[in-house]
């Protein structure tokens, strides 16, 4: 053997029989399966990386590439006959040094931070194995890679040779090569390659250029329709392995299927829930223009007796322990539905809903709206049951009732503050209007409404200029302690709680047990006198059983009806005179108009 390895880092061809494993190589023991996998890889793809050796008085000893050395020795022992066209790898390319310290450094580098194959070389190696008939799983085992990784690399192998050469020469990035796999033809791929080579072009820009008019399978329309249904209808697609998605190529077909399925779902919901109409909305929200001329209806909130509330709590506890039988689950569902409340049959028969598909929630329903009543030509339009100003007052009162409960929920308000400021929410979805800006909760006519003093105080005009904000004033404030600070912060945040469309207010109201009747009583001036006479008639019939009802109520003037109902709500003697039962009185004490309830779609 030649003894002329004088320079450091020489790359030489050395007969395989003269090579042996160095004691410096840390991988002295290697599993037979690993050697076999490497032998198969070398037999198909060749030696893609040279070995690293140390020149010693005993010859060249391999400090880096011990697995490859063993695999080569196995192939040599087989007579290089594993494949008919296998070319013997002997002599072997070895990078050699005579410097012991350098050899030690090489051994450490090779075994602790092995340099990976260049992606282009890896692609060519996988492609060579595929051309020899090796399966995906066999290639993956040979290179100790996942099948998904090999599949993606083989996708790159289908690029034109010029594109792979550009990748190997580092003229394009690996990400750019991945983008080029979306080209519909080799000619188009080379055309784009020419335009991006040597330029600062983002791969995503190339992806969009190569797939105009396509829709990703993650699009809400594609998710709603379903890829199988789209393909069954004749749609075409291509798979983007590197983005882990499928691209739908016929957007017009997708839109047609989207509209058809949406209309079918809207009709299904209409029939199942009993609405007069249901309209499919192709947007991912119901636009204001679709509802601006309609009358909004609200679900009637449910109410359980104290006994039923206790029963429901017990059933929920047993359900959490998975200890309910079929009858128990049915009773739980019944009580939950009754507490939730809902729309009446009369509302459903004269109103409708909008059905749409959102990116976040999928199929969604916005309930409920009613067409304005048609008025015959020449006839005076009937006054609404509740004028808009009264509805707005009721909504303010409803919000005030929730704010009053929130004033005692320090941790909850801090959670809402953090979520509003740092949760990435859309501006209109933030539960707190943190400017800070107190929200309007004072009704236009406030008789019958009584907020807690600390909340009501903010409704009075403040003529004082307040402190000047001096350091001394701030220190005096801090001296009052954290409890005082937290109370002020909680109350201030509670006053900023506003409404949106996410259902959060409804959920919090149920969680906190908000009861609007604690702060509001129906009075003639504040509520009843502002309703229509027909509304008052229906309310009397609803609250006073037929056997006890005053048959002359409908003959009263509207103002007298309002006073009579006010007495029903506030005067024990009136109830006794009517002979009302305890259950009847409980119903009266719990009654609120639908506009003071918390429907799911309304925050």
Automatic annotation (TrEMBL):
UniProt cross-references to SMART domains, sorted A to Z: ParB
Residue ranges constituting the ParB-like N-terminal domain according to the UniProt record: 12-112
Protein name in the entry: ParB family protein
């Amino acid at each position: 053997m030649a003894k002329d390895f004088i320079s450091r880092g020489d790359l030489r061809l050395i007969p395989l029989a003269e090579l042996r494993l160095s004691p410096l190589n840390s991988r002295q023991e290697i599993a037979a399966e690993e050697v076999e996998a490497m032998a198969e890889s070398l037999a198909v793809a060749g030696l893609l990386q040279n070995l690293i050796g140390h020149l010693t008085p005993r010859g060249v000893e391999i400090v880096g590439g011990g697995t490859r050395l063993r695999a080569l020795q196995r192939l040599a022992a087989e007579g290089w006959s594993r494949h008919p066209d296998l070319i013997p790898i002997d002599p072997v390319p070895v990078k050699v040094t005579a410097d012991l310290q350098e050899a030690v450094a090489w051994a450490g580098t090779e075994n602790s931070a092995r340099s990976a194959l260049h992606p282009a070389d890896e692609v060519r190696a996988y492609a060579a194995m595929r051309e020899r008939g090796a399966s995906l799983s066999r290639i993956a085992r040979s290179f100790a890679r996942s099948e998904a990784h090999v599949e993606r690399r083989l996708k790159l192998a289908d690029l034109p040779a010029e594109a792979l050469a550009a990748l190997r020469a580092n003229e394009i990035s690996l990400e750019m090569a991945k983008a080029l796999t979306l080209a519909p033809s080799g000619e188009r791929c080379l055309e784009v390659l020419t335009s991006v080579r040597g330029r600062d072009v983002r791969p995503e820009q190339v992806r969009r250029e190569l797939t105009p008019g396509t829709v990703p399978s993650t699009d809400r329309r594609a998710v709603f329709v379903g890829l199988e249904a789209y393909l069954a209808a004749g749609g075409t697609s291509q798979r983007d392995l590197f983005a882990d998605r499928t691209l739908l190529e016929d957007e017009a077909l997708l839109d047609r299927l989207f509209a058809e399925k949406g209309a079918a779902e809207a009709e299904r919901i209409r029939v199942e829930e009993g609405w007069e109409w249901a309209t499919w909305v192709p947007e991912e929200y119901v636009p204001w223009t679709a509802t601006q001329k309609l009358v909004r209806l609200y679900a009637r909130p449910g109410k359980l007796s104290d006994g039923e509330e206790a029963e429901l709590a017990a059933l929920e506890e047993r359900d959490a322990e998975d200890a309910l039988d079929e009858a128990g689950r049915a009773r739980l569902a019944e009580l939950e539905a009754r507490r939730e409340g809902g729309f009446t049959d009369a509302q459903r028969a004269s109103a409708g809903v909008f059905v749409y598909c959102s990116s976040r929630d999928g199929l969604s329903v916005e309930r409920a709206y009613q067409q304005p009543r048609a008025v015959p030509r020449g006839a005076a339009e009937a006054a609404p049951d509740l004028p808009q100003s009264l509805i707005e007052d009721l909504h303010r009162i409803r919000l005030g009732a929730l704010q009053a409960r929130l004033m005692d929920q320090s941790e909850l308000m801090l959670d809402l503050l953090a979520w509003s400021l740092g949760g990435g929410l859309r501006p209109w979805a933030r539960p707190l209007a943190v400017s800070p800006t107190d929200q309007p909760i004072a009704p236009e006519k406030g008789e019958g409404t009584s907020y807690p003093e600390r909340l009501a105080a903010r409704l009075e005009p403040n003529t004082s200029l307040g402190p000047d904000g001096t350091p001394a004033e701030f220190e005096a404030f801090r001296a009052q302690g954290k409890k005082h600070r937290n109370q002020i912060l909680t109350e201030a945040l509670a006053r900023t709680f506003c409404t949106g469309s996410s259902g959060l207010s409804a959920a919090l109201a149920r969680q906190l047990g908000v009861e609007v009747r604690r702060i509001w009583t129906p009075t003639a001036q504040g509520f009843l006198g502002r309703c229509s006479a027909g509304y008052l008639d229906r309310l009397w019939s609803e609250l006073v059983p037929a056997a006890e009802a005053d048959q002359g109520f409908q003959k009263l003037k509207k103002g007298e009806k309002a006073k009579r109902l006010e007495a029903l709500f506030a005067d024990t003697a009136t109830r006794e005179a009517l002979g009302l039962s305890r259950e009847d009185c409980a119903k009266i004490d719990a009654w609120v108009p639908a506009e003071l309830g918390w429907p799911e779609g309304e925050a």
